[in-house]
Amino acid sequence: MVKMLLIIVALVVANLGSRAIAQTPPDASELAAYRGLHAAAASGDVAAIRNLAKAGEKLDARDGNGRTPLHLAAFRGDADAIRALIAAGANPGLLENQRYDAVTIVAVSDDVSALKALLALGASAKLTTSRYDGTALIAAAHLGHDGIVRELIAAGAPLDHVNNLGWTALIEAVILGDGGKRHVETVRALLAAGANRNLADNQGVTPLRHARARGYAAMVALLEAVAPR
Fold it and tell me: What is the homologous superfamily of the domain 25-124 according to CATH?
């Protein structure tokens, strides 16, 4: 029975494939068509951002994919543009059409400096994002972005949020990870912060059982250790 459950989970993981991160940065034609604040954000022109904001341009205007100038600055990983936009009044909590906010965008791109800029200016690490009803923390744990994970934990990201696949950040670090150093450090950070190691997925399989099934010895050791009191 356990083997069958693990096979089902493996099929779900395989089916996710490259769809697991469905972010859509602007393509070349969109970049060429941008005007105003979208163009300034896409090129990282901080002076233009400030001037256009003072002139009354809409800070949260949307492109055809629902991206605001701040989303573009996040895709670009431009901390200075991020600071200029938020200082001018841009809303850091808006979601684009794929339901990603700026925090989740930089979490996926593993951009710690851009994340710090967002968090320092009031962006939330607690939003539910993506078509999987996940969080920036789940996305970062999935990818083994351990530095991002630590920043999000410090910012109060919900440790045990369960997405619509039935997975937490801890579960994703195991079943979507490669068992390597960065995913191990992600598991370590989550456990140290108090993530629930006993919270199972929809098939009743815990992170420890997933780690054992995959032969991830370092993760198994962490998950088997007695939680600090």
Answer: Ankyrin repeat-containing domain (1.25.40.20)
- Listed by start position, the domains of the chain span 25-124, 132-229
pLDDT in tens, 132-150: 999 999 999 999 999 999 9
Predicted model pTM:
0.90
Domain with residues 132-229, CATH architecture: Alpha Horseshoe (1.25)
∠ at Cα 149 (157, 16), nearest 5°?
Answer: 95
CA–CA separation, 32 and 35 (whole Å) = 9
Give whole-number Cα distances, 218 to 9, 138, 187, 195, in Å. Answer: 21, 20, 10, 17
Tell me the torsion sign for CA atoms 201, 115, 83, 22. negative
